Every structure is written in structure tokens, then in C-alpha cells.
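Shipment paperwork, digital attachment
Item: protein structure file
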Amino acid sequence: MMLQSLNSSSISIDQRQQKEDEYICSLDPLNADAVVKQIPAFNMDKNVEKLTSACYSLLPHPDRLESFDYYESVAAMRDLGFFLGSMKRHGVEPVEAVPELDYVLDVLGSKTNLPPRDTLLHYTSWNPVGFRRRTYTGTPDEDNLIQSVSMAMTPLIKAIFALEAMHSIRPDMPAFAACAKEAAGAFEGMIAGIVHTRKHVSVSYFAHELRLYFDPIHLHGKVYLGPGAVEMPMFVYDHLLWSSSNNDPAYVSFKETYLPYILPYLRDTYTAHCYKPSLLDIFGKFMLESELQQEEVWQAIREFRNLLNFLKSFRMPHKKIADNAYKAANGGEQQRTHGSGGYTPDILEVVLHHMKNAVADFENAVKYYESLPVR
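Attachment content:
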């Protein structure tokens, strides 16, 4: 019955994803509920031996592992992920401590079409709430961090699909402005999640403690990134809105570094628009080629500007938060120039630079449109 409701065509993609998230949160295929509650204590004591022993106790036998469906595989990866991050935080490569992990992680990654380790989705959207919450530290800060990303993820996905719909609608059609308004409303919901982080998660605590659990691990000679906010599909949102035609190698590399860590259907959305005109390109070109002003276009311009203003209201504080986190970290004992995602806050300056240029081109197109005779 649950699987039928998840596959129902009567609900939107974002609603279906939310139902899937809730279903995955309800699962405990490794019978890990009691064991994972001990992780914060093990971490506080830096007890790698107990972490290792507990991880061994949860590893499924091969026949059980092979029987897992997609949803069970996601939940299993989620729970094992807390041992991966914990062991690595204490200086131990998980697969060296528990060699059997390499096979289990490979199978789970294959079954889910995700990397062979936990991602931001496992840590947040697929993490149960309340007494079944999985954490590294058991602190209110960490619980609020998980909650804030979970709050932001569903509206961001909704906004992404509103933008994708706009790519197939002419800017002079009322539906274009309506989709822009829907995207802006959803994006505002995403910002609310980020604001929750600013209010309830100490920058210093995140820098000196929490983010140390998100370091990359090594598996089969490859590096797999840990959960991190940079794995949110914000780059897909940017891609559709203004950056799909941008070919700056550094920026493209930044986006594609995180492509494997997002949901497969979002990867498909990203790939389908690579090196094609963004919405800013499409709308700007439309205005430059128009001969008369139209009220429908002005409505689209108003909604589109609102969309851009929400994006700017996110980007500037986002960079400030990242800068402060790095300053806090580098003021402590552990000097880190790169985050768990492998980039410094400087990449956000690159994103801001390209975004400002794209918006400036759009505003120039609007000025031209203002000069046309009224229809």
C-alpha cells in the first residue's frame, strides 16, 4: 500500500519525495535503533573500539543485504553512515577498521544509485525525528542542524520543478509569471530552513565539532565526500535559473563535483539543461526580440525580479555564514582551509560574480523592453 501511494501519479514530484522521505525515516532494516543511540557517548569518549564493534554488529549478512529494496537500502546506508563519520572523525578510515564495509557499501550504493556512503540526504531528510533521531553528538545544535536542512530540502525541490516548468512556457503567457511566483514562494520556504540554522546552531560549535564528522572517506582508492550543506541541490536551482549556459571551468567543476550526491532525477534535470539557455537567457532574449510591451510580460518581469531578489537575499548571508565558520575553525586548534566538500568559501565569490553578471544582463534587457511602445 505504501509503495502504491509513493508511485501515485496524482501527486506532484515534491509531494511524492516528501512521502518517500517519511517512509524511509520509518524504516530500521538493520535493527539499529538501540545501537545508534550509543554513538554520541562513544564519540564523546573517542572510543573507536566500541564504534567498530557496534558497526560490526549491524552489518547485514549477504543474503539479507541482497534482499533489501531501494528504501531499505537507503535507511541502511543512513545508519552505517553515522559510524563512517564517527570513525573518520577520530582519525580512522572506516574500511580499514571494518574491512567488510567495502562490500556492504558497494551493494547499498548500487541499489540506491547514490555514492557508496551516506550523503546529506541520509543525514537530514531520511533521518527519523524524535527519539529515533540519529546523531553524532546528541546535542541540540546538531538536532537543529538536521532539522533546518530537512525544512529547506522539500521547498527547494518544489522550486526547482517550478523553474523547470518555466523552460517550456513562453514569457508572455500568464503561466510563466504564475510558475515564477510559485518558485519564489517555495524558495522562501527554503530560506526559512537556512534561517533556522542561523538562529539555533552555534557557528563555533559547528566549526570545531560538528563538521569534523563530515570528512571524506576512502573506498577502493576513491574519495567520497561526507554530508555537507553544499550537497543541497541549490546548484540545480541556479542552473535552471541563470547558470546553465555558463562555461567557466571552475564553476562547472564545482557544480559537477556534487552531481553524484543528489537524487537521480535531479541529476537528469541538471544534465538536460547543460550548456543550454537558462531562464535568464530565454527571458532576456524574448524581451530584446519583442516589438511591443505587453502587460503579461510586465507581470512576468515583476515575478521574475522577486525570484531574483529572494536568490540574492540567500546568497549574501550564505557567504557570510561560510566565512564566519572558516574563521571560527581556523581560530581553533585544527586548521582547515577546505570544508568537507573540498572547497573554500572563495567558490561562493565565484558564484556571486557570475550571478551578478547574469542578473545585470537581464536588467539591461528589461531597460530595452521599457523603451518599446505599449501594446
